[in-house]
Amino acid sequence: MPAVTASMVADLRGKTGAGLLDCKKALDEAQGDLEQAQTILRKKLGSKIDKLSTRATKEGLIESYIHVGGKVGVLLEINCETDFVAKTDDFKAFCRDLCLQIAAANPVYVRREEVPEADLAKERDIASASLVGKPAAAVQKIVEGKLDKYYSQVCLLEQPFVKNPEKMIKDILTEKIAKLGENMQVRRFTRYQLGA
């Protein structure tokens, strides 16, 4: 078992945003394996996130972004629990990153639950039209897969992050909640495009 070093703890903390003691314990449990320690922390932080998600978010920021050339702009409201967190550089940077995401990826909704049932029915019809004659179970799985792809196009939280496509926006939000220790919600946004 390799000894857990301060640099290993710092590396894990940088990747997860978890506290130093949590990172040290996870590395000890994982016997120095960084990937396994990340998995341990994700499991542990998941329960912490569930607890935080019930707390009210009445503070936050309204962030704006105008793309170079002035043809695309974004207004975004993100809420957190306290004014203290809303003023941190980490929270502000997250808000700016989400504005950039919205400008680049053009989502329509914040989360899946906001997509109207009429839009989902239309997507189901389109997805199943070419599957006539296939077994019902196969059709259902294919349609669900196509709906997931649709969600990743129209829902901000379902999109891969433009700065790091390996991460989803909802995962980055979860990491920020764990790191800052407060519940946060992307409340709403508006994307403006010249001539659209």
Explain this structure:
The protein has 196 residues and is an alpha+beta fold. The protein has 3 domains: 6-52, Helicase, Ruva Protein, domain 3; 59-110 and 155-193, Tetrahydropterin Synthase, Chain A, CATH 3.30.479; 116-154. The chain is 54% helix and 17% strand. A 3-stranded antiparallel beta sheet has the order 1-2-5. Strands 3-4 form a two-stranded antiparallel sheet. Helix 1 (6-16) crosses helix 3 (34-52) and helix 6 (117-129) crosses helix 7. It is globular, with a radius of gyration of 20 Å.
What's the CATH superfamily of the largest domain, by name? Elongation factor Ts, dimerisation domain
Counted by DSSP, the helix tally is 8
Percent in helix:
40-55%
CATH topology annotation of the largest domain: Tetrahydropterin Synthase, Chain A
Radius of gyration computed on alpha carbons: 20 Å
Shape: globular
* First-last Cα distance: 59 Å
Averaging pLDDT over every residue, what do you get? 84
Strand content: 15-25%
Overall number of structural domains: 3
Summarize this, please?
The protein is built from 8 helices and 5 strands, in the order αααββααααββαβ. With 196 residues, the protein is α+β, with helices and mostly antiparallel strands.
Secondary-structure map with pairings?
Layout: H1 6-16, H2 20-29, H3 34-52, E1 59-66, E2 72-80, H4 83-86, H5 89-105, H6 117-129, H7 136-154, E3 160-161, E4 164-168, H8 169-180, E5 184-193
Antiparallel strand pairs: 1-2, 2-5, 3-4
Helix pairs in contact: 1-2, 1-3, 2-3, 5-8, 6-7
